[in-house]
Amino acid sequence: MFGPVLILLAAWILGSVLDELGTAERITRAAARMDVAGLVPVVVFLTGAVVSFATGTSWGTMGLLFPLAIPAAAGAAAHLGPQDQATFLHVTVAAVFSGAVFGDHCSPFSDTTIVSSIACGVEPHDHVRTQIPFALIAAAVAALVGFLPAGFGFPAWASLVLGTAVLVAVPRVAGRRAMA
Predict the structure, then answer these.
(1) Computed from CA positions of residues 143, 104, 58, 117, in that sequence, does the dihedral angle turn out positive or negative?
(2) pTM for this one?
(3) Which burial class, exposed, middle or buried, applies to 149 when counting CB atoms under 10 A from its CB (0-12, 13-18, 19+)?
(4) Cβ(74)–Cβ(55) below 8 Å
(5) Where are the chain's structural domains?
(6) Taking Cα atoms as reference points, which of 52, 92, 48 lies closest to residue 70?
(7) Coil vs helix vs strand at 110
(8) What is the pLDDT of residue 70?
(9) Do residues 60 and 8 make contact, with C-beta atoms less than 8 angstroms apart?
């Protein structure tokens, strides 16, 4: 438990520094000024994926991104109606969780990656190498079929149907090319 506690402590300290610098307010103002409100969820997802992959921690990434992403999403969604604002915030929260878990899942620095590889009897770099293609496919579908359309108000049920269709089609198409 000592490692995770240190990671959460470091994320809390970094969050405090970012708060004192007014980072969330600056990001919120920039998101409100630019007409990019619909891009906030996908940018949050990609940022979370990169940070968690580089650090190997999903908890630390969540601790870092939540204080920045939620005010930015609230500022970007200020022009929407109450129900649409709530949906936009839900999508942004999902983007933080998803991005953080993506990076943690396939990071060579993650404790879960190291423990999984050792439990399977393979080297950690081999485990990462075999996980990355599948994780990248899932991340691409999440970003392009989920978070990007959701940021512009596309219904979640439609993204789920479309995402499922894409995930079913990818191995069929990729399998045919591999056989040819």
Answers:
(1) positive
(2) 0.80
(3) buried
(4) no
(5) 2-179
(6) 92
(7) coil
(8) 87
(9) yes
CA distances from 45 to 19, 139, 144, 173 (A): 21, 9, 11, 26
**Could you please report the per-residue DSSP string of 38-105?**
GGHHHHHHHHHHHHHHHH--HHHHHHHHHHHHHHHHHHHTTTS-HHHHHHHHHHHHHHHHHHHHHHHH
**Using CA atoms, how far apart are residues 13 and 169, in angstroms rounded to an integer?**
44
Measured CA to CA, the distance from residue 162 to residue 42 in angstroms comes to: 17
DSSP character for 29? H
Question: Which of the given ranges, 37-41, 78-82, 155-159, has the highest pLDDT on average?
Answer: 155-159
What are the phi and psi torsion angles at 81 (to 5°)? -70, 165
How far is it, in rounded angstroms, from Cα 57 to Cα 4? Answer: 9
Put residue 80 in one of left, alpha, beta given phi > 0 → left and psi -120 to 50 → alpha: beta
Rounded Cα gap, residues 38 and 25, in angstroms: 18
56: tokens are 């190997």
Q: What is the Cα Rg of the chain in Å?
A: 18
Degrees, nearest 5: CA angle 70-75-80: 110
pLDDT digits (tens, 9 = 90+) for 49-64: 988 888 888 888 888 8
Note whether 18 and 66 are within 8 A (CB): no
